Amino acid sequence: MLSWLQNNPSLDTEKPELVTIGGMKGKQFDAVASHIPQEYFSGGYHACGCIGEPGLPLFQVRSGYGAGFGEERTYDLYKDYKVRFIVLDDVKGKTVTISVLAPAVNFNEFWHMKAQEVLKTVEWNPKTVDSKATCVCT
Which of 53, 68, 76, 120 is packed most tightly, with the most Cβ within 10 A? Predict the structure, then answer.
């Protein structure tokens, strides 16, 4: 997953850094959409609806909360948004990808005031680790 995201021609990515989440080691890096195809703006693609504008589709995720729990949909990266991907390669034998998404203009504030606090609470339960990502849009 790390290599695929780092080499995606539609993403501008930063160099990965080592990270530990819930005792598991991995790498994290920031990315922004460098190119959203024009057909996505002209109605050729329907974004996930988190912010109601076309986005760059990256991969399928399974909803982890609410009425649509367990439903698959596309994880999109939007213009003017930044995502920090955290890729952990061996969580009970699975690759786990965590994404933290926020408007680029206040990403650092969101990361320091909210996201890091949530990530500090992560614990890995071998009965619930799944190979599919979970996307939570807030």
Answer: 76
